[in-house]
Automatic annotation (TrEMBL):
Residues 153-189 form the Mechanosensitive ion channel transmembrane helices 2/3 domain. It is a multi-pass membrane protein. It holds the Pfam family MS_channel_1st. Its main location: membrane. GO terms for cellular component: plasma membrane. Belongs to the MscS (TC 1.A.23) family. It is found in: Cell membrane. This is Mechanosensitive ion channel family protein. Keywords: Cell membrane, Membrane, Transmembrane, Transmembrane helix. One of its GO terms (molecular function) is mechanosensitive monoatomic ion channel activity. InterPro entries: LSM_dom_sf (IPR010920), MS_channel_1st (IPR049142), MS_channel_C (IPR049278), MscS_archaea/bacteria_type (IPR045275), MscS_beta-dom_sf (IPR023408), MscS_channel_2nd (IPR006685), MscS_channel_C_sf (IPR011066), MscS_channel_TM-2 (IPR011014). Residues 267-348 form the Mechanosensitive ion channel MscS C-terminal domain.
Amino acid sequence: MLDIIQGLFRPLDTDGPILFWAKEILGALLILAIFWMLAQLIVMALDKWGKRLASFTSTDLDDRILHRITPHVSRLLVTSGIYLAIRSLPLHEKLILVFSGVLFIVLVIIVFNLIYHAFDELLQWYIAGRQHDTDALISRHMIPIAEKITMLFLMGAALIVILKHFNYDIFSLVTALGIGSLAIGMAAKDTLAHMISGFTLMLDQPFRIGDRIQLSGGQVGDVAGIGLRSTKIKTMDNQLLIIPNSDLCNTMLINQAFPDVRAKGRINIGVAYGSDVDRVKALLVATALEVEDVLRDPAPEAYFVSFGDSALDMSLFFWVEEYSRLFDTTDKVNSLIIRRFTENSIEIPFPIRTVIMEKGTN
C-alpha cells in the first residue's frame, strides 16, 4: 500500500507528509483565490469602467460585445487558476497530465466560445444597421448560415490547437480530411454546386425573400425562402415552386421588386379608323386617373402605337404603388375604359377582312 501511495505522489518533504501536503494545498488554494479575485476585479472593472468608455462611442457595438464576453472572461480566469493550481500540486506526472489536459481543453473551449459570441454580436449589429440596405454584404437571411460556418471554423481551429497541445500529428489529420473531402466532393458534386450557388445568391442578392420574380419560363411568384440547395417560390396560384440554386444562378429572371415595389401597367387597345386620336389619348389618361390605385406621379400616359389591320393601336401606361396591386388595378381600368368608350361613342372594332371574289371567265 505504501508503494502505491508513493507511486502516486512525489517524494515527501522531511517535515512530514501532513505538513508538506498542507503547504502544497495551501499554495494551490492561494493561486485559485488570487485568480478568483482577479476575475471578480476584472468583471467589476468591465462593468464600471468598460461601460463608461463604451458610452463615449457613437455606436452600441462595444456595449453589446462587452455584455456578451464578460461572463466568458470570468470563466477563463477562474479556469486558468484551477489549471495552474493543479499543476502546482506534487502529484504524479500522469495525474498532472490528465488533469491539466482536461482543463486545457476546457480553456480552449472557453476562449473559442468567447470569440464566437463576440463575432455573433458583431454580425447581429451589422445586420440590424442595414435592414433596409440592399447593398449590404450580408443579408439578415444569411445570419444562420454565417453562424454555422463560423462555428464549424472555430471548432476546427479548437481541435487543431488541442491536438497540437497533445503532440498529435496535425498534418496527417489534415491530409486525411483533404482526401475525404475530395471523395465526398466527387460523389456529391451536384449538391455542392447547388450549395455554392446558394451562397452566390445570398451574397449577390438578385432577389430577397418576399420579392416577386418572373422566371425565364414565364412563371411568376414570390420568393418564400432561400436555402443552401434550393429556392422556394410561391406562385400566383398558391403552389410552391422549388428550384435548384444552380439553375437560378444560370438563368435570366425579372425581379419586379427592384429598384422599388412600384409597378408599371400597360393596356393595349384598338379603336376604329376615323377616330380622333388626340381625343382617345386624353380619354384614356382621364379614365386611368379615375381609378384610385393609379398613381398621379408618375402620371398615366397614352400613345398611338401603330396602324393595325382593323384598328388604330393605342397603349395606356400607368403606375401602381405596389406590384401586388397591378392585376386588380388593370381589371378596374379595363372595365372603366369600356364604359367611357361607350359613353363617348368610341368604337373598338372587330377584326375585319375584305374578301373580293372575281367572277371567272370561260
